[in-house]
Each structure stands twice: as C-alpha cells, then as structure tokens.
Amino acid sequence: MWGRVSLGWRWTRGWRLGRAAQDQRAREGGAQMDRAGIELNGTRYRWPSRPVVVVCIDGGDPAYFARGVADGIVPNVERFMTTGFGAVADGDVPSFTCPNNMSIATGSPPAVHGISGNFYLDRDTGEAVVMTGPELIRSRTVMAEFSRHGATVVSITAKDKLREQLGKDMDLAGGSVNFSAEFAGRCTLEDTGIENALELVGLPQPHMYSPELSLFVLEAGITLLEQRRPDILYLSLTDYIQHKYAPGESEADRYYRNLDAAFGRLDAVGAVVALTADHGMNDKSHPDGSPNVIWLQDLLDARFGKGSSTVICPITDRFVAHHGALGGFVRVYCHGSLAPEDVMRVVRPLPGVEAVYDKPTAARVFELPLDREGDVVVVGRTDTCIGAAEADHDLSGLKGHRLRTHGGISERKVPFIINRPLRPEYAATAAAGPLRSYQIFDFAINGVDPA
User: Strand pairing partners for 309?
Assistant: First the structure.
C-alpha cells in the first residue's frame, strides 16, 4: 500500500464524465487563459494559467517538516522551501479542522464564513450539533466560485464531514469533482461529479483510522491532475498520524516520506503546489502518559450546580477515537441566573488555563461569528486540554498512546509553503506579516509568476 503511493504508480482507468461536459471542456480549453478570474471575500483571483494545487495537511504542525528536513526525509518539501517559498503562518482559533478548512477554502476568517468549530450548541433548540451542514457556511469557496465561472475544479477530502461545505454551490456539470476518500466507493456523478473513484485510483477503500486515507486523497488528486488537468485542486488530509505519533517517530517518518513523494509528483506535472495545515498538534499528557485534562463541566457543576451551564467541546465530530473529544478550546453556555463573569472568575486561576474570554471579546480576538459564540471561551495551555464531564469522554481509543491534540492558541501555527518563488509584492507582504493560512489560495494563484 505504501509503496504504491511512494513509487508513483499511475492508474488510467477513468473517471466518467457526461459527453456534454467533455465537449464543453474541449470547446473552452483554449479560451481559459483570457478569462477574467473571480472575486471572493475581498480578494481578486486571476484565472490560473497552470493547475494550482492546495494541500491542507490535517494536523500538519510545522515541527514535522522541521524534523523531516533535518533528517532528510522530505527532500521535495525542502526543495520547495529553498527554491520557492516557505514560512510559518497563523491559522484560526479554535485550531480545529472545520473552521480552518473553511477559512483556507474561502480565503476568509470564521467571522465571514461562519464556521467556528466542528461542533456547536444551537441556542434555539438547545441541541449540540455537528457544524458541517452546507446551510451553515456563509460563503462560497474559491473552488465553487471558479467552477461557477467555467473552471474545472477538484475538491477531495479525507473525511466526508467537509465535503458538502466545500462543495456548496459548486457546478459539477462542467467536469468538476467533489468527493471524500471516506466514501470513495459510493461516488455518483450527480452528487460528486465522479463515479468509480476506487477504480480511478486503483486502491481499495481505505480505513478511516489509517494513514492510507490521506494517501488515497493525494493519489486521487495526482491521477485527476494527470488525466484531466483541472484548473484548481484542493486536497484535504486527515490527522490520524499526527494524533498518534510525534515528529521523528518511525510511523510519522514513514507517513511524511510518502506525503513528500506525492508532493514531488504534483510538482513534476507542472502544478503550482501550495502546502498548509488546518492546525498544529501538541502532546497534552502527564509524564506518566495519562491525559492532562481539566474536566470543566464537573468543576462548574460542583461550584454552581448541575444544569447551570453547558460545556461544549467543539473538537467533537464522529471520529474521536484518536483524541477522545479532548482539545484546547471549549465554550461555556450559561443558564438561568449564572453570569459569564462568575464562570470566568472561577476558571481563570485554574492551572493549565491560558486564556478566558467573554463572548464579545472572543469573537473580536479570534475573528469569530458573534452569533455562534458561547458565553465564555476557555483556552488551555500547550500541555493541557479541556473536557466537559469526565464521564462523557471515551478515552479507550488512546490506549497505548499519549494524548496529542489541538484546538488552542498554541496549535494555530501552520506551514505555508509554495513550490515556486513569490512575486516581489507578495514576498513583501509575507515579510511584513502576519501571514495567515487563509491567504494560501491568494498566494498560490496571484502570488507566483503565471508562466
């Protein structure tokens, strides 16, 4: 399985497009250089003259590339950083998958696109819900907007939870594609713009908790790039490895060798290749290996009484085996007579707490949508995670591994790497800083020479 990805096998058993879509693509191919581009969320994107590939390395803390370069296991990434551009950027807080993928894909912070976590409390219903519905996102993505203007785009994610938001308003009639590795065997032309994705890639359905899920995404992207040369590709991976293994561990090294080989193949096809991440990753365990957790709901219940507050852990999604729904950022909702100031007064001095904010302050500091914010935000330090009630977290999936997770300010640092040198004005912008991960499409499309 690993060798198939790293050795660069090519699989040509096709994707199936309707004949009309193929004809339309052929008619428009020669005219695309002359198109005007698009504008989205205040940024003007020119029409790409060559394919642009943005890869979101889920959990891709800059420490993995730093260690990989030092140990010689990521030669392509090292080359990109030497002959192109390499820096560390700030992602969004909370440093979770959904908000940061949407920031990257829309070129805007959560205050604009509206996705502020993987999980949130619906104040109208009182129910905690997964924040992945397309109706919740308040912006189109760069891929969707380009597709609506005639571009062929590809969006492939590891987990299906991102697919619908990334594909909102995407025009699949012209040959664009939007599917997940998680459900690669269920693709239909109507829903994803492609069928027989497993046949296309030539690999079996990958397991959800495996490195192969991410490698499938990359292999599918490479195959579509080689066969159809779409204008824009967005490839979003999963952080299974980073939750389990620290930089320098053998499984992490093997995974990053394979990522690097895939990045080299994308580069060899002639694409602009841009690498970033949705968040970093840190060890949040005691020296004995047990998780270092503040059980905040238990503490608030003991102090103010059960039912007086609800702690929401917005890292929560359907895939919690590798982190137990524990992260470095939680929201507290106050009920009845409980005031946010009372909660803040109790929580602020707790060991392991880095920051406590009320609703308006959190929304301002982290550029979050005010209407979807909790009454109180609590952020843990680098080595500390915050949970709800201890009884509500299943940590059995952590057996044999230290808890490595994310969500706080300390995990907002992410790589920002492009395989081509920046134009002078973009190099100056990057040097002036601060560089944000949601600028990656702008830099990859507008910031490099089109030739």
Answer: 334
Termini Cα distance of the chain: 36
Using alpha carbons only, give the angle 225, 226, 230 rounded to the nearest 5 degrees. Answer: 35
- 3 state DSSP class of 248: coil
Hey, what are 273's tokens? 């290749």
Backbone angles phi, psi at 127, to 5 degrees: -100, 140
Torsion angles phi and psi, residue 326, rounded to 5: -110, 125
Query: Residue 114 corresponds to which tokens in the numbers above?
Result: 């509206």
Closest CA to 225 of 12, 20, 60: 12
Domains located in the chain, CATH noted? 2-111+132-280+412-446 (3.40.720.10), 293-405 (3.30.1360.110)
Contact 372, 253 (CB under 8 A): no
- pLDDT single digits (tens) 86-114: 999 999 999 999 999 999 999 999 999 99
What kind and span of H or E run contains 55?
Answer: strand 52-56
State the pTM of this model: 0.89
